[in-house]
Write a structure and sequence with these properties.
The protein is mainly α. It contains 6 helices and 2 strands; from the N terminus they run H-H-H-H-H-E-E-H.
Length: about 200
């Protein structure tokens, strides 16, 4: 099935990807630079929320499918890659960090596909380390897209105001995500190494 409610949310995430990039190409008289940052961050957050809801609804409505299991991580990786590339172009992210994150995703995706082909996919199932890495990425990226002070006020007459330096927090979180990216990659490679050695030596 190509379309059900969870899959529609996944498709929506894919549709939102060019919008995250596209807002930065709008002329300044259409959307001011500060508004472009806000719009891109908001669109990314919306896309990230669909990632959570599509999985939740698929389980809740019993609408899980092989196609959904394929499309969901593809949408995630496209979304993260697009956002990282635009951040590099805006000089808000070092290209080496983007290369580490994207390179890891390509490597582990290829490894999972190969392990599935040899019937050993259970050795590299998603673990908590990968989930923490993803969470750090998903928080860091919109902070770097926003890239400015974010004021949060509460109380009568907005008497209490808390200012978040999204640039600083985004940079620290993306560094943490990069470290976890490398750590998780080596973890998965270590788990798969016995199978890699066995097949490299043509052993049964």
């Amino acid at each position: 099935m190509l379309f059900n409610l969870p899959l529609c949310l996944t498709w929506l995430r894919i549709v939102l990807i060019p919008l995250i990039v596209g807002v930065f190409y709008l002329p300044d008289h259409v959307l001011e630079p500060r508004d472009k940052d806000c719009a891109a961050a908001a669109i990314f957050i919306l896309a990230a929320l669909t990632d959570w809801f599509d999985g939740f609804l698929a389980r809740k409505l019993n609408q899980t499918s092989a196609f959904g299991a394929f499309l969901d991580p593809v949408a995630d990786k496209l979304m993260v890659t697009a956002a990282l590339l635009i951040l590099v172009q805006l000089a808000r992210l070092n290209a080496a960090i983007a290369l580490v994150i994207v390179g890891r995703e390509i490597t582990i995706s290829a490894l999972r596909e190969w392990m599935a082909q040899i019937g050993a996919a259970k050795h590299i199932t998603v673990n908590s380390l990968g989930k923490i890495k993803t969470a750090c990425q998903m928080v860091a990226i919109p902070l770097l897209l926003f890239y400015g002070p974010l004021s949060i006020s509460w109380g009568a007459g907005s008497a209490n105001t808390f200012v978040i330096n999204t640039r600083e927090w985004g940079e620290w979180l993306i560094y943490l995500a990069t470290a976890l990216t490398l750590w998780s990659m080596f973890y998965y490679l270590k788990r798969a190494w016995p199978q890699i050695g066995r097949h490299a030596n043509n052993l049964p």
